[in-house]
Specification:
mainly alpha, 4 helices, three-stranded antiparallel beta sheet, elongated, 8% strand, 105 residues, single chain, 40% helix
């Protein structure tokens, strides 16, 4: 597959292929434990096996929040959209009731 894509890919031993096809029912099943303990390698497009560290870059370290960050975010929302929605619903209900009362009269 590395030759087809011309990119390095991650690989594991072919002996584990039979374990992968079996469905696992829990985390402690034999296939799951075998996959967790399997040695991973990387295969270059040339077919050469190399260490994973040469192919995969580790994720960046997470930085802690800075000391100058506020403890609480500022309140930027307002109740005006909610009040407008309540007003429109009230207007619609009033018009619906008026239409129903004219039909019965």
């Amino acid at each position: 597959m590395a030759k087809i894509t011309n990119l390095p890919i991650l690989a594991m031993p072919t002996e584990l292929e039979s374990d992968i096809t079996k469905p696992a029912k829990s985390v402690n099943d034999e296939p799951v434990v075998a996959l967790k303990q399997a040695p991973l390698t990387a295969v270059k497009p040339t077919g050469e096996e190399v260490e994973i560290a040469q192919v995969v870059t580790p994720p960046p370290a997470q930085q802690k929040a800075t000391a100058d960050a506020p403890e609480r975010l500022p309140q930027t929302a307002s109740l005006l959209p909610l009040l407008g929605l309540i007003g429109l619903l009230s207007l619609g209900a009033g018009l619906a009731l008026m239409g129903i009362s004219k039909r019965t009269a």
